[in-house]
Write a structure and sequence with these properties.
Elongation Factor Tu (Ef-tu), domain 3; 24% helix; Peptidase_M42_aminopept; metal ion binding; globular; Aminopeptidase; hydrolase; ten-stranded mixed β-sheet; 7 helices; protease; metal-binding; alpha+beta
Length: 294
């Protein structure tokens, strides 16, 4: 299906750590003769942020375009006060239908946001930190886990944003004592939002999930993560319940006690998300400590 698997160690005790490689994006639905493209979403998008977004079409050659909508100069007062709907938006590359077809851009071509990676000290701004930040954390674990008497399975999954599909396959391929989804989660710590409504805080350390829309975390596993973090002086926070879902929601159906360790990220499911490398460090430390102690 496209998952990537790595195994470190050959012990009887085992843990599966999963991060998803895919990102939210789009797919070409129709190409008009003048070259404008109708598109459909892949994963969850907030329609309000789409107009004027630069996108990249993955044909035979990469082609860049802009999500276009009616200019404000010719919109009515009624239109200005109504939310923009996905079916009112198009992608404009400036090329016509024949030119696009010569580049193998047609119905079914995948599309991603186009964004520039920026680093401000420990702060990273980029697209797809959900869940490339988690994939990076797994790579760090692989680099720093010199040896272990346990079996550690590192899995980079696919199609999480379309329904946890890669995790379903991973759960059937790997039988482990515990499973952890290593994710990027919502950090809504901007001004104007009450503290009790903020799922997590960027800079607050690794995020542990007690419950989300796909999972009630295994209590033994959650307690062990808290205990290890306290013992090792690792910064953690508990995610406010009921927001989002992760690969752990599918891993649990294989009968594996499952949980989630996340990196708090602002503006996920957009072209410009943000995270703090301090939080990534805390996640890596927690995963390594958990592997050592479970």
């Amino acid at each position: 299906m496209g998952n990537l698997y790595a195994r470190i160690g050959e012990g009887e005790k085992s843990v599966l750590l999963a991060s998803h490689m895919d990102e939210v994006g789009f797919m070409v639905q129709h190409v008009y003769p003048n070259g404008f493209l109708k598109f459909t979403p892949l994963g969850g998008w907030d329609e309000r942020i789409l107009p004027d977004m630069e996108v990249k079409l993955l044909g035979r050659k990469e082609v860049y375009g802009v999500i276009s909508t009616k200019p404000p100069h010719i919109t009515s007062d009624v239109e200005r006060n109504q939310p923009i709907k996905m079916d009112e938006l198009f992608i404009d590359t400036g090329l016509n239908q024949a030119e696009l077809e010569s580049l193998d851009i047609s119905t079914g071509t995948p599309i991603t946001p186009s964004s520039t990676l920026r680093v401000n000290g420990s702060i990273v701004k980029a697209k797809a930190l959900d869940d490339r930040a988690g994939c990076y954390a797994l790579l760090r674990v692989a680099e720093e886990l010199k040896s272990t008497r346990k079996s550690v399975y590192l899995v980079a999954t696919v199609q999480e944003e379309l329904g946890l599909r890669g995790a379903r396959v991973a759960a059937s391929n790997v039988k482990a004592n515990f499973a952890l989804a290593v994710e990027a989660t919502v950090a809504a710590d901007q001004p104007g939002l009450a503290e009790e409504k903020r799922p997590s805080t960027m800079g607050g350390g690794a995020v542990l999930t007690a419950m989300d829309r796909s999972l009630v975390a295994n209590q033994e596993l959650l307690f062990l993560l808290k205990e290890v973090a306290k013992k090792r002086g690792i910064s953690t926070q508990i995610k406010k319940p009921s927001y989002g879902g992760t690969d752990a929601g599918e891993l649990q159906f294989a009968g594996i006690p499952s949980g989630v360790v996340s990196i708090p990220c602002r503006y996920i499911h957009s072209a410009n998300s943000m995270c703090n490398l301090h939080d990534v460090d805390q996640v890596v430390k927690l995963l390594l400590a958990f592997i050592e102690e479970f």
